[in-house]
Amino acid sequence: MFSSLFVFRGRASPLGEFAVSVAAAALVIALWELAARAGIIAPQFLPSPSRVVVALWTMLTEQNLVWHVAVSTARVWIAFLLAAIMAIPIGIMMSSYRIVGAALEPMIDFIRYLPVPALVPLSIIWFGVGEETKIFLLWLGTFFQLVLLVADDMRRVPQEFVEVARTVGANSRQVMTDVALRWMGPTLLDNLRITLGWCWTYLIIAEIVAADSGIGYVIWTARRFVKTPEVMAGVVVIGLIGLVTDQLLRLLHRRLFRYL
């Protein structure tokens, strides 16, 4: 079960990979707990896992954590879907037509290097302090990265595939749907999975803007009162949501692209 894990590019059974993942996570948590109990790490800086679990249970039962999680998840998915709906066709057009790429790529390269926290004041001026600002900041951190990834995926479609499709009489729409999109499908889904993770990383920034709900708000409020276990509990919740989402998208990838 485990021997192939030590072979270069070897294939292991799903059960073997799962067992190694669980064992590695358990080892890290155990070392963390031992270090905290031994006093190697001050609890105000890094509380033990057991204290984090207690804080998490308190937040679930007494502080409406489930509601905050639902609010944050909705914000992230709305912003991410908006980014994807815009980025996929724009990225495809940028790679398919040189004039579109020449017009848009320099501006996109410029904007994607701008730090999102620096744009918080402008976003408040433009949209106020409501939901629009939070979704805009999440969208901003996702769209400009995703559109270039989509454009790169489209550029990697082999030119000979396009030429063969033209030879057998395919028009531009058929080349796009039957050749390009089918070829770039696996990498496109991978890039969507990666940028969804990036969208979650901007959650704290988005939810400190006059927020009264969301995981970011919970973490920021706990930080203000130096409640480190609650801060860690909020971070762990985000990590768990990301882990579950990522595994579901990996499963979808395997189901859709069995030929890989």
UniProtKB/TrEMBL annotation:
The chain crosses the membrane at residues 20-40, 76-98, 110-129, 135-151, 199-220, 232-252. Residues 69-249 form the ABC transmembrane type-1 domain. Its main location: membrane. InterPro entries: MetI-like, MetI-like_sf. It is found in: Cell membrane. Keywords: Cell membrane, Membrane, Transmembrane, Transmembrane helix, Transport. The keyword Isomerase does not apply. It is a multi-pass membrane protein. Coiled coil: none annotated. It comes from the Bacteria. CDD domains: TM_PBP2. Belongs to the binding-protein-dependent transport system permease family. This is ABC transporter permease. It comes from Mesorhizobium huakuii.
